[in-house]
Amino acid sequence: MDLTYSKEDETFRKEVRAWLKKNLPKKDKAISDLMPHDPERVKRSKDWQHKLFDAGYVAMNWPKEYGGQDADVMRQTIVNEELTLARAPGLVGASGLTMLGPTLIQCGTEEQKRRYLPKVLTADEIWCQGYSEPGSGSDLASLTTRAELVGDEFVVNGQKVWTSNAQFSDWMFCLVRTDPDAPKHRGISYILIDMRTPGITVRPLVQMTGDAGFNEVFFDNARVPRANLVGELHQGWMVANATLFHERNMLGSTTRTQLMMQNLIRLARSHQRYGKPAAEDPLMRQKLSDLLTRVEAMKYHSYRQLTDVMHGRSPGIGAMVNKLVGTELNHDICALALEIMNSYAPLKKGAVRVIDNGTWAYEFMFTLGLVIGGGTSQIQKNIISERGLGMPKSG
User: Residue 330 in contact with residue 260, Cβ under 8 Å?
Assistant: First the structure.
């Protein structure tokens, strides 16, 4: 495992850092000051992603013919690290960039790649994911949303739920059942749906954080061209797994976890507990040490996975391990922050004695959703044990 950056990589890192220092949105115009569903926030987010693309910092490892630079994965890794360290706004087109884009490059037709990928890069078209349903969460293959092939169109009926950003998305990559008589992992197809299609209704769901980032989406005889089928008819489960691989990698962000840990240590040093800084309490120091050890272990696992990719080796179940470890660790970091703050923990942004502007309580609730999204921790553990370690199936 290579733990060093080359001189060229370090030079590139300095270039990215200098560009961000000059171009990062000013605090008085910060995207994060607005609610996720606010049209003004969406516009600013699109402008930010487009600016990054113009600078050459979006999907650098994509093929040149689809808007990338054929750069090695290290370059994009450095950009992602610097964006996180600079606390830059997230990319509004993340679902398209990290899930749909790599899936189309792997499984899409040439026409689909040239039609959709350039607009994914620039955020001219925003994508959402149509996987989960009211009765199909962890057991995704039990989905019931139907797509009946009539001539050259699919007629779609059913419901999706927990659809992030559907209220302002232009397109959805969606799993539908096209052969109801086939075994549940078969008879599923992967299609691309224009969200402006007649027969589609989007209803926002307010989360416990107060945001309305999730939605439920209803399909009532919505017609989708057969040309929007990705992969083979009834073989969408294989395409879906390609997307899930990229989603799980996205959810296990090492740099973000390291930043959260740094903020937790700062909180422990600055917040008084029993008349002295919390970091000086022996029990609290032990808890901090345990979390820091887990953060370091996660970092080195990510380095190992990055090294595999750079040398053309399959990372195997590494993405699932990243997702499992990262999402649970982020939630545990937030839980300890709330314990340190004690009775001040529930205070929200704007309260007189609020600490860190209420960020920790918000993140505690938000990270709980990430433990569930992309496959619950229980599902991840089953897959890792069965496919990665060769253990017998449970039950």
Answer: yes
Residues classed as catalytic: 247
C-alpha–C-alpha distance, residues 240 and 257, integer Å: 27
pLDDT in tens, 189-228: 999 999 999 999 999 998 888 888 889 999 999 999 999 9
The SS3 assignment for 199 reads coil
Per residue in 262-321, pLDDT (tens digit) is: 999 999 999 988 889 999 999 999 999 999 999 999 988 888 887 777 777 776 777 778
Q: What token pair was written down for 246? A: 């990229």
Tell me if 375 sits within 8 A of 243, measured CB to CB: no
The model's pTM:
0.87
8 Å CB contact between 181 and 50? no
Choose the CATH number for 7-92 among 3.40.50.920, 1.10.540.10, 3.40.50.1400, 3.30.540.10: 1.10.540.10
Sequence spans of domains, the chain: 7-92, 128-234, 252-388
Q: Where are the beta strands (DSSP E) in the chain?
A: 127-130, 146-150, 153-160, 171-177, 188-194, 200-205, 214-225, 229-230, 272-273, 276-277
How do beta strands 171-177 and 127-130 pair?
Answer: parallel
